[in-house]
Amino acid sequence: MSDVNELPDDGLDDLLASQRRFYDLRAPDFADVTKLTDRKHRGLMPTTEVRAIVDDFAPRGDVLELACGSGGFTRDLLRHAHTLTAVDGSARMLELNRDIVGDPAVEYRHVDLFDWSPDRTYDAVFFGFWPLAGETHATPASKQTV
Ligand SMILES: C[S@@+](CC[C@H](N)C(=O)[O-])C[C@H]1O[C@@H](n2cnc3c(N)ncnc32)[C@H](O)[C@@H]1O
User: Fold this and answer.
1) pLDDT reported for residue 95
2) Average pLDDT for residues 114-132, to the nearest whole number?
3) pLDDT tens digit sequence for 55-93
4) Is 65 in the pocket of ligand 1 (CB under 6 A)?
5) Ligand 1 in contact with 72 (CB < 6 A)?
6) How far is the CA of 28 from the centre of ligand 1 (A)?
7) SS3 of 94, please?
């Protein structure tokens, strides 16, 4: 399999940077169903569904959450994890997560997943994605080897 760093760029770095910027700009209204949206459908995943997904996975020990966003899954991961590290490429989304989840036990890291190598191991990794209709930026297949 090719190393992702050896693949031709083809503007992917600009595209990925635009995704991070997109979430920085969206953060103030993200997860607030009273605010105008650029999406076809409003709303968050029902909390009972989120809980069922996380409880089914039941991650124990030191858990890493990738692209935690506003915290749709973070709070429920905390119910299982011994420690939880939540990473995201948008500083503002991390701030929002901290405000919403409000638990000092979460360690937040501002990282670009395509440039980041963890400096330790974890017992479980969770990468949730609550797909909201109207999202226009699919991750390029050639960069999906993280
Ligand atoms: C739709 S949100 C999903 C958040 C959460 N996982 C959920 O399902 O509710 C996508 C998140 O991915 C983050 N993200 C996008 N590109 C990233 C990158 N290159 N590195 C780290 N995070 C990134 C965004 O900042 C955003 O918070």
Assistant:
1) 97
2) 89
3) 999 999 999 999 999 999 999 999 999 999 999 999 999
4) no
5) yes
6) 14
7) helix
Using CA atoms, how far apart are residues 105 and 12, in angstroms rounded to an integer? 35
128 lines ligand 1 (CB under 6 A): yes
2 CA from centroid of ligand 1 (Å): 24
Domain ranges of the chain: 7-143
> Which CATH class, in words, describes the domain spanning 7-143?
alpha beta
Q: Rounded to whole angstroms, how far apart are CA atoms 138 and 146? A: 15
Strand partners, 21: none
**Centroid of ligand 1 to alpha carbon of 129 (angstroms):** 8
Please state, as a whole number, how many other Cβ atoms lie within 10 Å of the Cβ of residue 32. 12
Question: Considering the chain, what percentage of its residues have pLDDT values greater than 90?
Answer: 61
